[in-house]
Design brief:
alpha/beta, 7-stranded parallel beta sheet, 15% strand
Length: 227
């Protein structure tokens, strides 16, 4: 039976390229986007409203996906934000927003989806994290905290779902040529990792057998001496 994949933040950037790649490989897609009416659905995908900060959004999206397809095999948590939260300018509101979207929302998605992924027998969870979850190179402590947290979340999914065939992977890129990186990176767009390459890495990873699981994938566009 054709596998079903859920992808959050699928309207642009990395999420859009993941959707395109999985569509090419024959997956049925459930895409979570903030404004479905504005989404150019050229993939014949099931498109749902998904606002990461809403506490019921993840469960509603998972329930709608199961109602539509009757199964769930892959959950890709891609939606996220990157706002500057340093010790000098950090506020509770900024930190709460970042943790809501980057950490709590993926947690809630997994809560809603894990039982369905277990039933697949070869369920896959992919968290788009960051190299900022593996090391600290700048002063954006709020973003770094959130990405360290979702790597821990990914390992928790591995532990909770392992015996039922669920495999979880944290994908940790450096700069990727997206709108988010455009105002942050000190690299030319062509020197960054391209979103399509991240999509290829993810698609290849989720198709590995249960006996060849990768917990973390660190993706570099330039040399880092800690890796």
């Amino acid at each position: 039976m054709t596998k079903v994949a859920m992808i959050s933040g699928a309207n642009r950037g990395i999420g859009r390229e993941i959707a395109l790649e999985l569509h090419r490989r024959g997956y049925r897609l459930s895409l979570g986007v903030r404004e479905p009416a504005l989404f150019d659905n050229d993939l014949d995908a099931f498109v749902c409203a998904y606002e990461a900060r809403h506490t019921d959004a993840g469960r509603q999206w998972v329930n709608a996906t199961i109602e539509q397809f009757g199964r769930l095999d892959v959950l890709i948590s891609n939606a996220g934000i990157c706002k500057m939260i340093s010790f000098d300018n950090g506020t509770d509101d900024l930190l709460e927003e970042t943790l809501d979207i980057n950490v709590k929302a993926p947690f809630r998605l997994v809560q809603a989806a894990l039982a369905h992924l277990k039933r697949s027998g070869a369920g896959r969870f992919v968290q788009i994290a960051s190299l900022s979850g593996k090391r600290v190179k700048n002063l954006n402590v709020g973003y770094q905290m959130s990405k360290h947290a979702v790597i821990a979340l990914t390992h928790a999914v591995r532990r909770a779902g392992w015996d039922d065939g669920v495999r979880a992977t944290a994908v940790c890129p450096g700069f990727v040529n997206t709108d988010m990186a455009a105002s942050l990176a000190d690299l030319e767009p062509s020197a960054m990792t391209q979103p399509r390459d991240i999509a290829t890495i993810i698609a290849n990873t989720i198709e590995l057998p249960n006996s060849a699981s990768m917990a973390e994938l660190l993706v570099n566009c330039r040399f880092e001496d800690m890796l």
